[in-house]
Amino acid sequence: MLPVALLVVVAAAQVTLARTARLSPWKGGGFGMFSTTDDAGRRYVRMFVSAAERSEELAMAPSLEDAARRAVVLPTDAVLSRLARRVVERERRYRRPVETVRIETWRIDYAPDTLAATSRLIRDYVYRVDAAPAPRP
Amino acid sequence: MWTRLLRPARDEDGVSDSVLTLTAIILLLRPLDVWWLAPFVLAAACLSLAVRAVRHTPLTWILVSLLVAAGIVFVWPLSDNHIYLLAYWCLAIGLALSGSTPAATLSAGSRWLLGAAFAMAVLWKAVLSPDYIDGRFFRVTLLTDERFADASLVFGGLSRDQMEENRAFLEPLPEGAELLSPPAFVEPPRLRAFAAVATWGGLILEALIALTCLIPANGRLQLARHASLLVFCVTTYALAPVAGFGWLLATMGLAHCRPDQTSWRAGYVAVFILILLYSEIPWTAVLADWAGR
């Protein structure tokens, strides 16, 4: 019965995370796949960096894709902070100033009858670079 | 304790060889996507297929289960649900093989795992998701998910141009924005009916499997359990692009059969192969081309 108990515990945790932390129902071991349009393919992140004389939206770089995929599925502080740190590391590699990273997580909603699609912001997260550890030389 | 985990299970009351073989084949057909774990799982699967003693040793399956679980933790939260089920299943095999009645233990374990997994699936579809019961999920997915596109053309009666227009319609606009000339949305009655059949057919079958697995009775209920699971596999994995899940369900169903239930056992092996064919033959694309869609 241990495997069944594990399944039930993980599934209960998944439902809780989906309800409280916006985990996509498709992921996390709760068997919510093919039950909703709220999947990773219909969520996306937008990343903005700002510093003195700089404020711009970033395109998704390949080095950020893995962290972004996780942030899309589970946009918690911990996961978004990890993505923001990757952004800061990348900006510093290119010697570009960065003081804050703002990450918006969006999902697509469809109207019940017409299926008209709209994007809805589900998480707005700001990461201040002061709190980040200094980069290695 | 350790010697029990290292000793191959006895033949009498043992787990059917085909269950262990098919589980090893699943591990080979869909390797883990974590490079530093996949080689060990593949090696264990190969050894299991080649050496009977490895296949029947509890520790083999417990180790595989731990490796799969490590993969889930490493890529958290990106793993698909059948990877979780695979970890539970390998653990169930390992624990059953280390007990005194392996076949009976694994048969009961597979029934409970199937029941719990399908109960969760029904809970999400019927209660927790706001856009499943009203049909939105399949209406949108049949149009936007490339993996269902050919089926939508064939069974939904759409043309490729209509499909493209519908996809443009289903692209989101920023909040408050409106297009001067929005793309048309065409939803033929056949497509709407296809979405409704997928929505309700899937839910009813899943609820049936959950119920028949969670009610601990034999006789006719057991027959209904096998029949609903087989029908689910045959219909769902013809279109759903998750063969790994289907193989796992067929193998778990096989493990739940008694040795004398030869017809059901043959049915599960046939379904395992059918799902393999579904996944390798683009039959909906061939039909769409043939129908000029």
Q: How far apart lie the N and C ends of chain B?
A: 62 Å
Overall outline of chain A? globular
Give me the strand/helix succession of chain A.
HEEHHEE
Query: Could you list the spans of chain B in which at least 5 consecutive residues all have pLDDT below 50?
Result: none
Please tell me about this protein's structure.
The complex is a heterodimer of chains A (137) and B (293). Chain A has helices spanning 2-20, 65-73, 77-93, and strands at residues 43-51, 54-58, 100-110, 117-128. Chain A is α+β, with helices and mostly antiparallel strands and 137 residues long. Chain A starts with a helix and ends in a 9-residue tail after the last strand. In chain A, 33% of the residues lie in helices and 27% in strands. In chain A, helix 2 (65-73) runs antiparallel to helix 3 (77-93). Chain A has a four-stranded antiparallel β-sheet with strand order 2-1-3-4. Chain A has three helices and four strands. Chain A folds into two domains: 1-36; 39-137, no CATH class. The radius of gyration of chain A is 17 Å and the shape is globular. The longest helix of chain A has 19 residues, at 2-20. With 293 residues, chain B is mainly alpha-helical. Chain B folds into two domains: 1-100, no CATH class; 104-173 and 181-293, no CATH class. In chain B, 72% of the residues lie in helices and 0% in strands. Chain B has 15 helices and no strands. Chain B has helices at residues 2-6, 17-29, 38-50, 52-55, 58-74, 81-97, 102-128, 136-144, 146-156, 160-169, 189-214, 220-239, 243-255, 262-280, 283-290. The longest helix of chain B is centred in the middle third of the chain and has 27 residues, at 102-128. Chain B is elongated and about 75 Å long. The N and C termini of chain B lie far apart (62 Å). The interface between A and B is large, with 42 and 48 residues.
